[in-house]
Design a protein that fits this description.
The chain is mainly alpha-helical. 38% of the residues lie in helices and 0% in strands. The protein has a domain of 44 residues. The longest helix has 15 residues. Keywords: Disulfide bond.
């Protein structure tokens, strides 16, 4: 028996399997445009050194997850490990002074 393939070589009747990651709904309502624009501006101003804009890429992904534009998942699975995130947050806190609610005792 000879099966005739569908368009682009696919078999007719075969159910497509969506990719795990990489394709997600577009932001038609522009809900995360501000976060996206901040990230792109940071990339341009830093000479496209993405590590300097990591906090903004995290903010953008969080925005997409909050608005169901991508599956919710732990940010550590997306490459945002606590050490890196804590380092960038502590640098921004050190520049603006210490936070009033944080204790720095070592006991």
């Amino acid at each position: 028996m000879i099966l005739i393939g569908g368009s682009f070589g696919g078999s007719r009747g075969a159910r497509p399997v969506p990719p795990e990651k990489g394709i997600f709904p577009l932001d038609h309502l522009h809900e995360c445009d501000l976060a996206k624009k901040e990230y792109i501006a940071c990339l341009k101003s830093s000479g496209y050194q993405s590590e300097k804009c990591r906090h903004l890429s995290k903010k953008y992904l969080e925005c997409r997850m909050e608005r169901n534009l991508m599956a919710k998942q732990d940010l550590s699975e997306l490459g945002f490990h606590n050490a890196t995130t804590d380092l960038s947050e502590s640098n921004s806190n050190n520049q603006s002074g210490s936070s009033p609610g944080k204790s720095t005792s070592t006991s």
